[in-house]
């Protein structure tokens, strides 16, 4: 017979009991709940009037129901503890590979979420990146601040060049952009020569078809973020004439956020026509990007170099020339370099042999032998993207970290993680059964250190599937230098469960 | 006897109530005045210590009376012995909840 709740309060009482039942150990839950629901029916009969409600009665029933929690907790505490079977993590080959794949995928997802990491993974947005050169003062080869005077830029641009075919200049400053009568946010503006985007080959979005962005007047290119934040991504913004500081500028387009990878955080670019760019003070320092003449053989292609040039005042000055390709490809290049270093350091930090395995084990098919190597290779292959994306995530976890620090963090983390991961891969492989690839269990100390030269002294591990024993010597000797695998013959089968044997394909 | 020496007054009272014929949880609550959060956990402990035994009422009997079946509790031999020794420790227990024999007398 089931108790049918016929009042809302009774449904609530039943719900309380069901909640309390969740605390009761599963094997006793149904009996416990049956007893309490049965008792509840009698409590209802005794405390609640047949029709209508009674505040006092409801209180008594509620107190009765709340007592169920105490009973449930008591049962939970007194129930014999069932210790979960302790299974080592990553025990089976599938678990191990699945976990690595999951971690690599998580690292990739995180890299796609972090703006800096996402940008670093994308290909170069610039046209002809290899021949685009960032020129900076000689003592500031990794300059993240302006080092070139505007007068120097004009001198280079006006002189006939053999080494470079074009120059562009920009300097960052903060100016108020008057959007509306009471809206004038301060933006970080890159005041630049009109050829900056042409030189870089960056596509500008929303450019009106009948109008060039550099049609003899000051034009403003907004970053995608500023366009979204201050103009709500309204296409009508393009073509508007706004006041930037004291200057009248015309909004001429929008640049995608990921496209700008040169030094300086910029919200908008003010493109100065050539005649007005002359108004930039000669002593103003900025950044200079130049296009290297591919036919010139005076400078190494794709590498950084120094050049010495005459200054307008008659002296000479050294400058550092750094191809943009060096900046764009650095994350993967850093990773490859640390991979090389980790492979060099690996033999010095751990032993490489995977152990000795008898040449003719009983009934081992080629597929089983091959599976072991495929497993090792898969682990190594999964580790590479895991470490690459993980180090990228770590390096770009904060947007305020400078480029040299990013490279340092990525390099150190990538090298450490690769070395650790390779060591783990080899050690993990050595601790696995060559037949079923499960982790070996039940390590047992055998022998005594004092009898090392007379008998075996080391650790023995066993495969839970009954495939064999692994002897790991405590001290490497000339007759027992590395761990040795001993296949167990079929007479041992009866000692092990069929399930494990089936999982290994041995029965 | 370990269980005997550790029996609290509440547990002894519940044992006495069962002995007196109050053989299900709510009846014990009504008789002793103890809340449900005390009576039921005590019943679990007494059953765990083999002082009482529980069994479900037959479904047919409950159906015939149009009510849900009850879980009844009954003293075991060890429970009776423990209760007798508890009477020495708690002399007023038998008077507080008189057993059927005492009522007949």
Written overview of the protein:
In chain A, 31% of the residues are buried. Chain A has helices at 8-21, 26-47, 55-78, 93-113, 115-121, 150-158, 196-200, 224-231, 274-277, 324-328, 330-349, 366-395, 403-430, 498-503, and strands spanning 132-137, 148-149, 164-178, 186-193, 219-223, 241-244, 247-255, 268-272, 285-292, 305-310, 316-323, 441-446, 458-462, 468-473, 484-487. Chain A has a 6-stranded mixed beta barrel. Chain A has a 4-stranded antiparallel sheet with strand order 12-13-14-15, with no helix packed on it. With 507 residues, chain A is α+β, with helices and mostly antiparallel strands. Chain A folds into 4 domains: 8-78; 132-300, no CATH class; 330-430, no CATH class; 441-503, no CATH class. Chain B is mainly α and 105 residues long. Chain B has a single domain (2-96), classed as Orthogonal Bundle (Arc Repressor Mutant, subunit A), CATH 1.10.10.10. In chain B, 62% of the residues lie in helices and 10% in strands. In chain B, α2 (9-19) crosses α4, α2 crosses α6 (77-89) and α3 packs across α4 (36-48).
């Amino acid at each position: 017979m089931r108790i049918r709740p016929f009042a809302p309060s009774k449904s609530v009482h039943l719900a309380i009991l069901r909640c309390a039942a969740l605390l009761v150990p599963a094997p006793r839950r149904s009996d416990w709940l049956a007893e309490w629901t049965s008792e509840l029916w009698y409590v209802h009969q005794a405390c609640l009037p047949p029709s209508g409600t009674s505040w006092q009665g409801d209180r008594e029933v509620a107190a009765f129901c709340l007592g169920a929690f105490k009973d449930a907790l008591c049962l939970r505490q007194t129930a014999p503890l069932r210790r979960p079977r302790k299974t080592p993590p990553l025990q089976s080959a599938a678990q191990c590979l699945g976990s690595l794949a999951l971690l690599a995928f998580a690292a990739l997802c995180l890299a796609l979420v972090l703006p800096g990491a996402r940008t670093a993974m994308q290909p170069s947005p610039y046209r002809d990146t290899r021949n685009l050169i960032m020129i900076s003062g000689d003592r500031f080869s990794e300059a993240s601040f302006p080092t070139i005077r505007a007068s120097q830029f004009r001198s280079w641009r006006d002189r006939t060049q053999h080494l470079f075919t074009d120059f562009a200049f920009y300097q960052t400053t903060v100016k108020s952009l008057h959007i509306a009568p009471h809206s004038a946010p301060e933006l970080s503006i890159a005041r630049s020569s009109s050829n900056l985007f042409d030189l870089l080959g960056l596509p500008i979005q929303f450019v009106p078809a009948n109008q060039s962005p550099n049609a003899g007047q000051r034009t403003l290119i907004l970053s995608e973020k500023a366009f979204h934040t201050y103009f709500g991504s309204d296409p009508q913004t393009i073509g508007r004439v706004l006041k930037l500081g004291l200057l009248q500028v015309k909004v001429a387009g929008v640049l995608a956020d990921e496209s700008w990878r040169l030094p300086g955080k910029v919200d908008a670019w003010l493109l100065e026509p050539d005649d007005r760019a002359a108004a930039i003070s000669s002593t103003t320092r900025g950044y200079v990007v130049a296009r290297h003449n591919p036919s010139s053989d005076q400078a190494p292609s794709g590498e950084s170099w120094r050049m010495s040039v005459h200054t307008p005042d008659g002296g000479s000055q050294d400058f550092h020339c750094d191809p943009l390709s060096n900046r764009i490809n650095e994350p993967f290049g850093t990773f490859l370099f640390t991979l090389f270093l980790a492979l060099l350091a690996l033999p010095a930090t751990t032993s490489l042999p995977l152990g000795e395995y008898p040449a003719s084990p009983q009934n081992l098919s080629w597929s089983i032998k091959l599976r072991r190597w495929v497993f090792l290779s898969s682990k190594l292959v999964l580790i590479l993207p895991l470490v690459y994306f993980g180090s990228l995530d770590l390096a770009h976890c904060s947007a305020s970290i400078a480029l040299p620090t990013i490279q340092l963090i990525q390099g150190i983390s990538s090298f450490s993680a690769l070395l650790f991961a390779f060591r783990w891969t080899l050690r993990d492989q050595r601790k696995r059964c060559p037949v079923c690839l499960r982790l070996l269990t039940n390590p047992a100390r055998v022998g005594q250190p004092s009898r090392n030269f007379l008998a075996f002294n080391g650790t023995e591990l066993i495969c839970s599937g009954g495939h064999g024993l692994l002897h790991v010597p405590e001290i490497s000797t000339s007759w027992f230098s590395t761990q040795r695998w001993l296949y167990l013959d079929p007479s041992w089968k009866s000692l092990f469960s069929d399930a494990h044997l089936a999982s290994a394909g041995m029965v | 006897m370990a269980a005997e020496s550790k029996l609290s007054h509440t547990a002894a009272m519940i044992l006495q109530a069962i002995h007196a014929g109050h053989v299900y949880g709510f009846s014990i609550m009504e008789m002793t005045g103890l809340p449900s959060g005390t009576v039921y956990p005590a019943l679990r402990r007494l059953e765990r210590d083999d002082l009482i035994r529980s069994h479900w009422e037959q479904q047919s009997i409950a159906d015939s009376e149009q009510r849900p079946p009850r879980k009844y509790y009954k003293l075991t031999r060890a429970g009776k012995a423990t209760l007798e020794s508890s009477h020495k420790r708690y002399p007023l227990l038998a008077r507080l909840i008189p057993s059927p024999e005492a009522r007949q007398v």
